[in-house]
Design brief:
Layout (H helix, E strand, L loop, with lengths): L1 E2 L2 H5 L4 H13 L8 E7 L2 E11 L4 E9 L11 E9 L5 E6 H20 L6 E5 L3 H11 L6 E5 L3 H13 L4 E3 L3 H6 L3 E4 L18 E4 L19 E4 L4 H4 L1 H8 L8 E4 H5 L13 E4 L4 H19 L1
Parallel strand pairs: 1-6, 7-8, 7-10, 8-9, 10-11, 11-14, 12-13, 12-14
Antiparallel strand pairs: 2-3, 3-4, 4-5, 5-6
Helix pairs in contact: 2-3, 2-10, 3-4, 3-10
Amino acid sequence: MKILDADQTRAHLNFERLVPALRDAFAGDATVPPRHVHAVEAGSDRGTVLIMPAWSDAGYLGIKTINIFPGNGARGLPGLHATYVLYDAHTGVPLAQLDGNEITAHRTAAASALGASYLSRKDASTLLVLGTGRVARLLPAAHASTRSIRKVRVWNHRPEGARALATEWRHAGWDADAVEDLAAGVRTADIVSCATLATAPLVRGEWLAPGSHLDLIGSFTPAMKEAHPSCFADARVFVDTEEAPTKAGDLLDAFAANALTPEGIQATLAQLCRGERPGRLSPSERTVFKAVGSALEDLAAATLVWQGAASEAG
């Protein structure tokens, strides 16, 4: 079994290839069982363990284990740590262990961009990112693979973190600024992408401009939420998977507030990728995309890495 470290894994996850790979994966057939979710309590520390398997007729089976500890920020540690093992689906033989953190961050950002490719305006050029973690850092590059992003702004509950990330992005060539007035930042953004571990709503519906696209990719449990129920009222709402309406705190709160019904959800990402349902219908409508993540995305990303590494090895 090959061991591919973070650098080796990252080298094969450029968004120009990863976003189309995810589009093909959602349009195709794969088996994705429900994730296993376990609460972890160790003294006063609390976390969540997810076990996410998937396999397909392409011949690959993958299993990701991901640990989420929201309190890690206070320790100067990432909130998520993951491992990924890829197997031959015909024999069960292990092929490779990949860096799960890179797989998770890149596939999450790529799914965000994939959703936006159907749901944001084609002329969307201003991106506001909420959060400064692993996924948030990748969002400008991911969205720039499908839209002509010219201006990037970032907000974080710790303003110094937003300023540091904006500086980092400027050094990478982006026109980037940190914002402290979140409402003002949301009002002027074409795409608002939330990649946080928030447990209380950050974005309100009245802040969102006509024609804007709200991308919610951080929360994945009923206790986590990034958007107020008002964000879903008078918007066309889409989800990554059929699992999202049962797992996402944002959606559950919107249902409870009668701002959205389960039947009001327009489509899943698979339905968009297969052309079974339409995405954005007009330049003026508001759209919302709520993702909780899928093992299908992990499998597509891991397969891309494995095939790239195998090609390099000759």
